Amino acid sequence: MANTNVVNVIDQIANELFEAEKNKTSVNKFVDRFPELDETLAYQVQEKLVELKCEAENTVRIGRKLGLTSKAKQVMMGVHEPSYGVLLESMQLYEGEKISIAPFIHAKLEPEIAFVFKKELKGPHVTVADVLAATEFIAPAVEIIDSRFQGFSFTLADAVADNSSSSKFIIGDRFYSPEKFDLKLMGMVFKKNGEIISTGAGAAVMGHPARAIAWLANKLYKVCQSIQPGEVVLSGSLSGAEKIEPGDHFSASFDGIGTVEAVFTE
Predict the structure, then answer these.
(1) What is the pTM of this model?
(2) β-strands 92-93, 166-171 pairing
(3) For 184-229, how does the pLDDT look when each residue is reduced to its tens digit (9 = 90+)?
(4) Does residue 117 contact residue 160 with C-beta atoms inside 8 Å?
């Protein structure tokens, strides 16, 4: 593909995804229309989409999120590694505020452990120990994912282009040093309207949540990027994603670091 052609494809897909989110309309998979859309090109689309959102929403980047961190999800998607997306300040919601489901296409909720960094994490050889040493705080979090694709049906490249199905997130208001915990064994209970819908442990995320972040730092190195001090990273879901309906009240409780809640309205 000639360079102009590549730029046109990146711009077109990014613009369509941007409009889909803005107008709450879903789109069909792009790989059918653009067979050249591979993972590398998809991350370039993601960058362009994030630029469009930063400009339109007058916002800035504040971190990253991981997706497809469980073996089961990878098998389901036919992929062998996770994906990542960018978190923007405009995506952050706060505990205690009621969240309208009106802006979403078909939102789902996932429980995650959030990491906040005090030092730069730069590949290509970042380890779990490096991640923990660079982490200032961990906190309980939930992520609202909302794919812009019809029926949540997409390939890895489509999902990556769509900023890895990112939408909104909430981080609990209590922060802890990771030194006090074995994150691999940290248990989690996920409830919807008072009923337990799933339980999990940190090990559900690539064997250790920090392993997912090490993967991310090493992957970012390939595109001359790194995790910066002050950034937040959502390390990946400890359970399946749960569909959100108006009136739903969710809570995710993590051993030793507390609970984060999310309440949804029409």
Answers:
(1) 0.96
(2) parallel
(3) 999 999 999 999 999 999 999 999 999 999 999 999 999 999 999 9
(4) no
